[in-house]
Each structure stands twice: as C-alpha cells, then as structure tokens.
Amino acid sequence: MWRKIIVFVLFVLPLTIAPALADRAAAEKHYRAALELSKTDIGKAEAEFRAAIAEDGKYVPALLGLARLLLEAKGEPAEAVVYLDRALAQDAENFEAHLMKGVCLLRIGGKDPLAEALESFKEAVRIQPDSPAAHRLLALTHAALGEAEEARKEYETAVRLAPDDAQVRFELGMLLVNMGRPAEAVPYLEKAAALGPKAPEYPWALGMTYKKMKKYAEAIATLEKAATLATGRMKAGILSDLGTVHAEKKDYKSAIACYERALKESPEFAPAHYNLACAYARQGKVAEAIKALAKAIELDPGFRELAKKDPDFDPIGDDKKFKELLEEK
C-alpha cells in the first residue's frame, strides 16, 4: 500500500502539477501585461485579463483585476460581480473582493442589491475591522437602506479610525442633518471644511446647516466662502442657495442679487430662475415673476407643478397671466 502511495507522489502527482503550474505561469504573464496596458489601453487590458482567466480560471489576481476594470473603467458593475464571486469562491477571506463586490452592488442599486452590499461590507469589516473604508461603506449602505442609527455608529467608527478624512466627517454630518440633528452635525462639517479647504461642498453643507438652525449670519458667510471655491453649475447652485437664506430673512433685494449672480455663472440653471421668480412674487412684481418662472418651466417643466403649491406665489396668485402660465401644457 505504501509503495503505491510513494509511486503516486513521486511519479504521478508531478504529472498533474506540471500543467497547473504552466497554466498559472501563463496566467501571470497575461496578468502583468494587463496591468501595464490598463494605464494606456483599456480594451487591450481587458483582453489580457480575460486571457489570464482563460489560462487559469482560479487565478484570483486576474479575476479581481478584470472586475476592477469592469467597474471603474467600463461602468459594468453587474458583470464585475460575476468575477468577484468567482474570486470569492477561491478565497472567501479576500477583503478586496468583498469590498469591491459591495461597491458594485451599491452602483447597481435597488433594495435587494443594497441588502447584498450590506452583507459584503459586513464581511469586509469582519476580515479587517480596522479598515475605515469598510466602515464608511457599511455606513453608506445602512443610510441608503434607511437605517440611520446603524449608519451613524459605523460612521463614528470610521471617524475614529481615520480622524483626518474630510469625506467621512462630511457624510456623517449630512446624515445627522437628515436625522434632524443639525447642531450635532456642525462640528463634523466644520472639521470637514478645515480638512478639505479647497472642496466647496464642505462649506456649502455647513452653510445650509446653519440656515436650518436659523443662524443666518453664519450661513451667509459660509456660503459666500463656498461660492469662491466653486465654478460653473456648482457655483450657481451655491449662490442660489445663498439667495434662499436672504429670502428666508425677507431680504429680497439681496436674494435677487444672489440669483442674478448664479445666472451670470450658469444662465440655464433652472432653480435660480425659479427662486428669482419666488423673490419677485413676494415683492408683488408680477411681470418680473412671470418672466422668471416661465424661463424656469422652459428649462424644467417640473417647476410648473411646484409653483402651483408654492406659497411664495400667493401674492400674484390671482393674476390672469400667472394662471395661464400654470395651466399651459
């Protein structure tokens, strides 16, 4: 019996191992080529990743590499999941595969994919409990599923693990605002703005949080700063939001000036036209309000239905031309 085993180990087993080693060597060659090509030619890189997998379908680096290319370069998360599942079948403890699969499922969206994403990120956290990225993505998924308190706990863990990550603090701050806890959000948003001084979204979020708290002076100063950091439609959006702060204070002159600044930056920015119409209506300036509202509706027909319910237009609600504008199809 032992003689047969020895013969198998010495003579038969090497015959089965050699082709496998040859397949792996060929797969590695294609994989290395794919990595180089991914910098310059996505199509050829994809072909090399697929060639590596054809040589050795269990070669995890190639499976992960192709999945990453499909997700990031080609925007095909569903196909990427197929290769990530194959990678996980070979290595169930692969942190990168769990994390990437979760990201793919987030991109796909929908209740069932989100539930699957949650499990992927939980596995990633189990494997690497000190990964701030895994905790952040788990938090993001909880939030997308409407599980705010679970999201808050995961974000707080991510903040503890990565105290200098502005984006994590920003997302936690926005979550707290959406939970109706703006005062708790402010320190996170202030720190995010300090850590990311060139990112307009951080002071924008802080400014809008101040507005929610009716701290108008702070809101105006912070939104003005955010506007200096932005360009194009983003700047127009910030200036339009700044106008709503002035409008809430009933300072319609300053509000109109902000909306006009927004439209100078982006003339086709429909929300600024709509907000401008609201400000004119509040002042009883019928012709100006109708002109601005007509432009907003031209750019985005959804504003017609919004205007029908908006109390800002009550002062001009009986005007014939205003009624006609709202009745047009």
Description:
By secondary structure, the protein is mainly alpha-helical. The chain has helices at residues 2-37, 42-55, 60-72, 77-90, 95-108, 111-127, 132-144, 148-161, 166-178, 182-195, 201-212, 216-229, 232-248, 252-265, 270-282, 286-299, 302-309, 320-327. Helix 6 runs antiparallel to helix 7 and helix 9 (166-178) runs antiparallel to helix 10 (182-195). The protein is elongated and about 80 Å long.
Describe, in short, the structure shown.
With 329 residues, the protein is mostly helical.
Annotate the secondary structure layout.
Blueprint: H1 2-37, H2 42-55, H3 60-72, H4 77-90, H5 95-108, H6 111-127, H7 132-144, H8 148-161, H9 166-178, H10 182-195, H11 201-212, H12 216-229, H13 232-248, H14 252-265, H15 270-282, H16 286-299, H17 302-309, H18 320-327
* Unreliable spans: 2-18
Strand count, sense and closure of the main sheet?
Answer: none
The value of Rg in angstroms is: 28 Å
Q: In oligomeric terms, what are we looking at? A: single chain
Distance between the termini: 90 Å
What is the residue-mean pLDDT, rounded to a whole number? 93
Quantity of strands, as a count: 0
Q: What's the helix count?
A: 18
Rough shape?
A: elongated
Query: Secondary-structure element order, as H and E?
Result: HHHHHHHHHHHHHHHHHH
Give the fraction of residues assigned to helices: over 70%
